[in-house]
TrEMBL record:
One of its GO terms (cellular component) is endoplasmic reticulum membrane. The chain crosses the membrane at residues 83-101, 121-143, 155-175, 250-270, 320-341, 433-452. The lineage of its organism: Eukaryota, Fungi, Dikarya, Ascomycota, Pezizomycotina. Belongs to the ERG4/ERG24 family. InterPro entries: ERG24_DHCR-like (IPR001171), Sterol_reductase_CS (IPR018083). GO terms for molecular function: Delta14-sterol reductase activity. This is Delta(14)-sterol reductase. Keywords: Lipid biosynthesis, Lipid metabolism, Membrane, Oxidoreductase, Steroid biosynthesis, Steroid metabolism, Sterol biosynthesis, Sterol metabolism, Transmembrane, Transmembrane helix. One of its GO terms (biological process) is ergosterol biosynthetic process.
Amino acid sequence: MAPKQKQDAAPAVHGYEFGGPLGAAGVSFGLPILLYIFNFACNDISGCPAPSLLHPKSLDLETLKREVGWPANGFCGLLSLEVTGWVFAYFLFSAILYRVLPATEVVGTQLAGGGRLKYRFNAFSSTVFTLTVCAAGTIAQGAEFPVWTFISDNYLQLLTTTILISYALATFVYVRSFQVKPADPEFRELAAGGHSGNIMYDWFIGRELNPRITLPLLGEIDIKEWMELRPGMLGWILMNCAFIAKQYRLYGYVTDSIVLITVIQAFYVLDGQFMEPSILTTIDITTDGFGCMLSFGDLVWVPFLYSTQTRYLAVHPQTLGPYGLAAVSAVLAAGFTIFRLSNNQKNAFRLNPNDPSVAHLKYIETKAGTRLLISGWWGVARHINYFGDWLQSWPYSLPTGIAGYTILAAGSQADGAIKMLDGREVIAGEARGWGMVFTYFYILYFAVLLIHRDGRDDEKCSRKYGEDWKKYKKIVRSKIVPYVY
């Protein structure tokens, strides 16, 4: 009998990604700065962008500080202990819902060490419960509901707090990952790309694959899966709702554009949470460790960047009308159809290749025992679901139009100005078009993200399938966009 191979808690490292340690540092500390720039440069005090930014040659620092709303007490104003306390309360509330609401118990995919982890899923019901409570509060108190005013009034401090929490969480799981041992009875293991030996890179990419923690009364929580679909995703919806309320407080009405974006994005979040078990086959769960990349992305990047459009529209209302609504909705419907049908087809094939809905599909049988689809949706492009996902990002930005505005003092009597209830006037002026840097950034970013994911997946599959993957790529030539890319 051949001797048993020793199980290793640390799979073979497959090299740097994201430009190595320097790239990891750039992403970890550069993206937070970018979010601060977005907050200050596109604001509700002077304009989007702030007027001084349109005249860099004559830019005066003190004037710029006034225009962007820089805190009177400087950097200390970026943080608030009260806000920090409420953010922790928000996390605790979400954790309580995770434990007390009914949940679906699901077993994950097989790990490198041979084990399978159990997951508890109820993100959808948790979000619905929270939104129901907020809806009741809004019915009772309208746009002055404290949750909405707190978010919009403390946006800057909320950003700082969640950035610090994401850093602290990444540091916690990094330090704790050194407890992982071979043949761990709890199936703890390291991510293949997360133990390079470089502290900066491993802290960013994540050393441990599926870090878990057991909390008093709340029980065990899978940190990565929990952060992926709960606080940040719900926070995204809550921020959008807060900006709707802010628009009403500023103007006394709510426009169809801000409602449309909020509904579209809420549907995207709720759809993902409703299909929560499908996350177990994503690269985030199966391959990536949990480090700053996912911690910052889940808790900060998603809610604060993705709500940029509603934050913009809260100050510069835009009306689409029936034809505009129909056009934007058509783009959304096309993207969602491609995204959902392709993913459903893939999941159905994985569960039961003989199911009548997928039995007709052609595939390649690999030496690794996996079947690669080469017909149906997956015969059109290797990541046709990414194409659908990217199309769904366009309706987030299109309602902002040719973005850009300047805020004038009350009584300016500017032509074509939109008047706030306090008398201030908002016009496009020379800022017209420059605001698109902020409101359309998401589309560009998401395209880069999906292309990068495709590249990472290609490397992973090339290592796993070898010559079979080369054969597959000759048959399915398009990566994401059919017949284009």
